[in-house]
Each structure stands twice: as C-alpha cells, then as structure tokens.
C-alpha cells in the first residue's frame, strides 16, 4: 500500500505536469502568432540596422554589444529574408517563456509559473521583442536564466553555481549593457538575505565576477582599441535636459510612456505587486529576492531615461520580469473573486483585441483612414518602413546604371541607410554620411569615396539635404518613388544624382 505522503507527492507531480503541458501550449500559441507577423511583414529600419551589423562580424559595435549581431549572423547563413533575420528573436521568446515558467515553479508552484508566462505574453513589449530583431530579444531569456541561477543559490551550496551565474551575467552584458545589472542584483540579494550571506565568504562567489568579466571581454577589447566610443555615446552624446522644469516634464513623460508598452491594465497592477513584494520581503525570502531584482533595476532605468534625450520605453522590461513572477505567486495563493476575475479577463481581452487589430492593420493599411488625423503620426508608424523595398531596389538599379560605373548609394540616417543596404544586398555599396557618429563610421561606410558617383536616397521621415552631407557635389533631384498599398501612400523615396566635383574616376 502507498503511504499518504507518497500519494500526495504523486498528486502534486500530476498537477505540475498538467501545468507544464499548459504552459507549453501557451508558449506554442504565442510563437505561432509571432510567426504569423514574421511571415507576413518585412523588417523595419531598426531591425535592418542590427542585421547589417551581422554582415560585418566584429567583437562589438558602437551602439550595443555584439550578441544581437552574432545571433543574426547565425540565422542568416542560408537566407537573408525576414524570417531568417527574425528567427533569433522567435527562438529567444520560447526560451524566455520556459525560464519564466521554471522560475515561477521553483519559487512558488507550476500554476504560478504558468500565470507568470501568461502575464509577460499579454504585455505588448514582451510580445513584440519576441519577433522583432532587437537587443532585448537575447537579453530577456538571459535575464530570466540569470534570475534562475541566482535563485538556485538560495538553497544550494555547490561552488560552481556562482560561476554559472557569472557566465550568464557576462552573456547578458553581451546582449545589452544593462545586463550588468544582474551582477548588482546578485550582490544585493546575497548581502541582504540571511540565506544568501553565506556566499560572501566563499571564493567561488567572487570568482563568478571574474567569469562575467572574461565573458564580457569582446566588448571591452573593442572599445579599448577605439578609445571607448560607446561610453562617450551613452554617457555624453545622448545627455538630455539639465534644467529642473524640463527634467520634471521629461520624467513624467518617461513614466507615462510605460503605460502602453507594458499594458494599460497590467502595468499599474505590477506596481501594486511591487509594493506587495517590498512589504513581504522582511518575512519571505522569495519576495525579498523578487523585490531586489525589480525596484533597484527600475530605479536605475528611471534615472538613466531621465538624463538622456531619446529614452526608449522598452529599456525597463527586465525590471518587470520578477514582478510578473511575483504576481503569479500571489494569484496562485488566493481566491479569484468577481472583481479580480473581471480585471484578469479585461487584461486578456485588451491583449487579444489589440493583437488582432495590429495584425489587421499590418495587412490592410487602408484601416489608417479610421484613425483621426490628429492622432496619427506617420513617422511613428513602423509599418510604413516595411513595404516598398522591391520597388526601391528596381529604381536604384536603373538610376545607378544611368550614373555610370562605380556608382555608390548613400542615405542620411543610420537605420534608413541599413534598410537601403539590406534591400540592395549592398549592391551597389551603401554609405551613410551624417552629422553624428554611427556604426557605419566604424564599418568604413561613413563618407562615400570622393571620386565615386553617388545616388542619394531619403524618405519623408529622414530627409537631410544632400548638399550638407555631400559637400562639393552638385546634386540634382530625380523622380520620386511613391510606395502605395491598398490606395494608401505608405512612403515617398526621393533620389538625387550626385556626381563627384572633379569628374568620375
């Protein structure tokens, strides 16, 4: 006969298996939806910029560490289409979902892990980063994996665990510089937790920092060889407002900018969960861990976003990961009453309806006519960047041929330059002159050759005068290309013929 304890264990294992199957179904469905977007849309300008890096393999890059480029290099060995370019984020989203589930399961229950995965899946910023090529795509699973490694140190004493955590921190740093915050999370938790303090006296804990440094060496070597340009970019060139009044307005804008990307209902709910984590931290080591992995990270990003002139709302996404797990644990341990059930249903409904509307809009641009003119900003509509590249390639081939042998192409903004290079497959070669330094300067693709004819291209959004970027050349306008879909003009591409001042070589 089986003992009561054995039966309880078997029943618990059966419940865990059922929630594991459910989370795999959830991750599979989310991946299928992301794949639908991937297969039916072209890449945007920002994605093209990261993809272009992969065509010039390097230890690191000017704007970000190299992992997004290395990932893209691997996935585009056979094809250079949008599916191949975005395959990395798709795979990363699967790994991220699984790591979130395991973290919730280890801290609470398998059901809590499922709820945590459902929360991050419903948030627009996590959904988008799972199919759009961006540095957050590899950062998200590495961050969750890092939290898993740190969590295991709560109850396990194997000396290799800090080394593993250090390796993950180093890899997260290779994904995005903010990955180094995982090291701060580790130190904060170990120092603040009675369970964790035992590690402070063990050499393997401090060796973990050495491992992280070794893994991060490619970025450090690249920057040291070039005079630390990335530090200058992020800590000087991007500096924003300094007077108090402007700073206050900027901070309010930054905080308000979190509402849409992190879901208008889920975002305030996670702030409530943050307060709950902080209140429970003194008595419950699980919530202490999740609180320390969240509020210091969010505070850091708030400060950084307040001091730069061009903050992006998705920077904070890793700070909400522990809160999603904590929300899963909190929901798992309480009865779902009518008001809470209505809130959860509304969260899911907004995500589903929003996703369907976004996909419909991506396939039928004519729907933009339903948007009030005052509310629509063409410059912020990424779908305008995803069409017309076959037409542009045909036009460039004809006009470059007319300009003669040795013609190169140039544009005026790094992301647009990257998209032009991607569309043309760098034939003719594409250059990107500009008033600010970009990765193209480090790739040897800043100013075009002085003696080569230049076909200059810009669109409605980025439209610097070629005379300011190509001094000494007498540029003349060529016919404009209007990209139209469903009776809607998505974008105009403008062309200029810019022969060299002293004739062609």
Break the fold down into its secondary structure elements and pairings.
Elements lengths: L3 H37 L4 H10 L12 H9 L6 H4 L1 H21 L2 H13 L1 H6 L6 H20 L4 H16 L5 H12 L10 H13 L1 H9 L3 H9 L6 H13 L9 H15 L4 H8 L2 H13 L9 H16 L5 H26 L25 H15 L4 E3 L3 H11 L5 E2 L7 H4 L11 E6 L6 H4 L6 E10 L2 E11 L7
Parallel strand pairs: 1-2, 1-3
Antiparallel strand pairs: 3-5, 4-5
How would you characterize this protein structure?
It is a single chain. The protein is of the alpha/beta class. The chain has a five-stranded mixed sheet with strand order 2-1-3-5-4, with helices on one face. The longest helix has 37 residues. The mean pLDDT is 93. The chain is 60% helix and 6% strand. The protein is globular. The protein is built from 23 helices and five strands.
Our count of helices gives 23
What portion of residues belong to β-strands? 5-15%
Structural class by helix and strand composition: alpha/beta
Order of helices and strands: HHHHHHHHHHHHHHHHHHHHEHEHEHEE
């Amino acid at each position: 006969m089986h003992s009561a304890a054995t039966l309880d264990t078997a029943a618990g294992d059966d419940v865990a298996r059922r929630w594991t199957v459910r989370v795999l179904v959830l991750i599979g469905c989310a991946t299928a939806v992301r794949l639908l977007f991937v297969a039916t849309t072209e890449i945007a300008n920002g994605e093209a910029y990261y993809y272009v890096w992969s065509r010039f393999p390097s230890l690191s890059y000017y704007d970000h560490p190299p992992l997004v480029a290395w990932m893209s290099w691997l996935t585009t060995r056979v094809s250079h289409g949008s599916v191949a370019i975005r395959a990395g984020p798709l795979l990363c989203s699967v790994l991220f979902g699984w790591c979130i589930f395991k973290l919730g399961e280890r801290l609470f229950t398998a059901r809590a892990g499922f709820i945590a995965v459902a929360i991050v899946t419903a948030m627009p910023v996590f959904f988008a980063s799972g199919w759009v090529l961006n540095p957050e795509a590899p950062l998200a699973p590495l961050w969750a994996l890092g939290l898993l490694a740190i969590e295991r140190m709560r109850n396990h004493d194997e000396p290799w665990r800090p080394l593993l955590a250090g390796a993950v921190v180093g890899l997260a740093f290779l994904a995005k510089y903010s990955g180094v915050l995982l090291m701060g999370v580790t130190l904060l938790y170990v120092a603040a937790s009675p369970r964790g303090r035992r590690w402070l006296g063990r050499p393997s804990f401090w060796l973990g920092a050495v491992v992280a440094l070794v893994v991060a060496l490619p970025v450090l070597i690249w920057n040291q060889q070039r005079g630390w340009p990335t530090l200058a970019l992020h800590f000087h060139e991007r500096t924003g407002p300094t007077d108090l009044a402007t700073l206050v307005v900027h901070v309010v804008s930054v905080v308000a900018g979190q509402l849409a990307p992190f879901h208008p209902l889920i975002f305030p709910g996670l702030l409530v969960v943050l307060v709950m984590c902080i209140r429970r931290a003194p008595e419950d080591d699980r919530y202490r861990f999740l609180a320390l992995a969240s509020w210091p990270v969010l505070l850091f990003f708030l400060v950084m976003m307040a001091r730069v002139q061009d903050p992006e709302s998705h920077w904070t996404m890793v700070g909400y990961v522990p809160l999603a797990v904590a929300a899963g644990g909190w929901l798992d341990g309480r009865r779902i009453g009518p008001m809470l059930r209505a809130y959860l249903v509304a969260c899911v409904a907004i995500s589903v309806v929003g996703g369907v509307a976004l996909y419909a809009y991506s396939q039928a641009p004519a729907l933009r006519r339903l948007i009030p003119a005052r509310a629509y900003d063409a410059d912020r509509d990424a779908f305008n960047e995803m069409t017309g590249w076959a037409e542009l390639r045909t036009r460039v081939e004809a006009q470059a041929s007319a300009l003669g042998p040795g013609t190169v192409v140039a544009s005026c903004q790094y992301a647009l330059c990257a998209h032009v290079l991607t569309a043309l497959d760098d034939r003719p070669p594409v250059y990107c002159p500009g008033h600010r330094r970009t990765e193209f300067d480090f790739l040897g693709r800043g100013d075009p050759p002085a003696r080569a004819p230049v076909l200059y291209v810009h669109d409605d959004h980025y439209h610097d005068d070629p005379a300011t970027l190509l001094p000494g050349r007498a540029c003349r306008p060529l016919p404009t290309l209007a990209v139209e879909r469903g009776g809607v003009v998505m974008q105009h591409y403008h062309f200029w013929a810019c022969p060299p001042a002293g004739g062609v070589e």
